[in-house]
Amino acid sequence: MTEQVQTTPGAPDASFTEDNADAKGRFPPRGVPVITGVNRVGLWSLYMKEVRRFLKVQTQTIWGPALTTLLFLVIFSVALGRGGRSVLGVPFADFVAPGLIVMGMMQNAFANSSFSLLAGKIQGTIIDLLMPPLSEGELMTGIVGAAITRAIMVGGAVALAVWIYPSADLHVSHLWAIAWFGLMGAAMLSLFGLLASIWAEKFDHNAAVTQFVVAPLSLLSGTFYVIDNLAPLFQTISRANPFFYVISGFRYGFIGASDIGPGTEPVVIAGAGLLAFNVALAGVTYLLLKSGWKIKN
């Protein structure tokens, strides 16, 4: 008498094994990826994880930079803007305000993207980023996208603070320049922050990049002055600083003038140059992520 094996409808049959799964067509062959194309769910999950991380402490990550930037504006407009001083045909406070807005955006984009991988390496949780089925491009896009989102939020908060300040007026002259140079500046510092987090092995390394690279390039980029006031040598050095083009182009969107050059054409060329620079920076970042340097070793 043979024993009959009962199976419930839809349940796998008793003879099903991993070896004959491919023959039955229930799973793809080994080594064939299940997810093809862009992993949209994984990319969106990573992006939202990064956004929620900085929104949980938004007093520090969004509103704190707005207050700090407003204090910069008050101090410099009082110290340097007395006597009705004007720069590029506008009051000094109107001149310096756009530069402070985009400088706050860039610095916070760097801070956001430089934290994720570095914190994972130090705390031993980097496997949470490397284990999911995300390609290097998707990993980079999720982290950089969240950093750009924080930069935009900080820019809005800083603009609101500047709008409240009675001595500064924000008038939009070229909306395309505000959007383009704001995006290019945020993307550039997001990618640079991700590069820094790949290289850094402890928080001191990241702080060193902030203090000795990002802060000097930000403050020496023409935020508080026009480079025509500098000696020829220092004008040349300033024009080699990509932060200069971000800040001057962003300012052009508000006041309709910049020290990049006369007219709109130099500003457009600078915008195209920033795009090419960001593409190159993204390529380097992608290659480093793919190599696993200081991440998978």
Automatic annotation (TrEMBL):
Its main location: membrane. The keyword Transmembrane applies. PROSITE patterns: ABC_TM2 (PS51012). It is a multi-pass membrane protein. Residues 1-25 are annotated as: Disordered. It holds the Pfam family ABC2_membrane. The chain crosses the membrane at residues 62-80, 139-165, 177-200, 212-231, 267-289. Keywords: Cell membrane, Membrane, Transmembrane, Transmembrane helix, Transport. It is found in: Cell inner membrane; Membrane. Residues 56-292 form the ABC transmembrane type-2 domain. InterPro entries: ABC-2_transport_permease, ABC2_TM, ABC2_TM_bact-type, ABC_2_transport. Belongs to the ABC-2 integral membrane protein family. PANTHER family: INNER MEMBRANE TRANSPORT PERMEASE YADH-RELATED (PTHR43332), TRANSPORT PERMEASE PROTEIN (PTHR43332:SF1). This is Transport permease protein.
